[in-house]
């Protein structure tokens, strides 16, 4: 008999997540966005873009905290992680949309662009080191922490 997906144990491989490096990238992107927005006549768009990047970074940090706390339990469940993700994404989306709507005439839409760009930056910053490691040393599933052998 198989375990239903919501009751299956939660297993995460180790991921190359460096929040300080992401913060530096976010600050650099915000500076570029503010300068570019200033020259187009809407400097607040760049500021709101930076707020979106900040919300994305906050989301990534909250994901890491949730994964660490949930996987530290004796029997971590996917259902708990799914509920955590749903709540966190609902709150961050509500904050982003509220800012975008309230400040729409002042470039508030930049928050949504910042959130979207952050996701691309996050994927690149975590996948490039993993792909480099795979390219140099190959992929040995037995050495990857958090993976389980399938029978």
Strand content: under 5%
The count of DSSP E runs of length 2 or more, i.e. the number of strands, is 0
Helix and strand pattern = HHHH
User: What class do helices, strands and sheet pairing give?
Assistant: mainly alpha
Question: How would you state the average pLDDT, rounded?
Answer: 82
List segments where confidence is low: pLDDT < 50 over at least 5 consecutive residues. none
Cα end-to-end separation = 14 Å
Number of domains: 1
**Helical stretch tally:** 4
Rg over C-alpha atoms, rounded to the nearest angstrom: 19 Å
**Shape assignment:** flat
Largest sheet: none
- The level of helicity is 55-70%
Short summary:
The chain has 151 residues and is an all-alpha fold. It has helices at 19-40, 43-71, 78-102, 110-137.
Features:
151 residues; mainly alpha
Write a structural description:
- There is one protein chain.
- Helix 1 (19-40) packs antiparallel against helix 2.
- The model has no long low-confidence stretch (mean pLDDT 82).
- The protein is 69% helix and 0% strand.
- The chain has helices at residues 19-40, 43-71, 78-102, 110-137.
- It has one domain (17-132).
- It contains 4 helices and no strands.
- By secondary structure, the chain is an all-alpha fold.
Helix and strand topology:
Layout: H1 19-40, H2 43-71, H3 78-102, H4 110-137
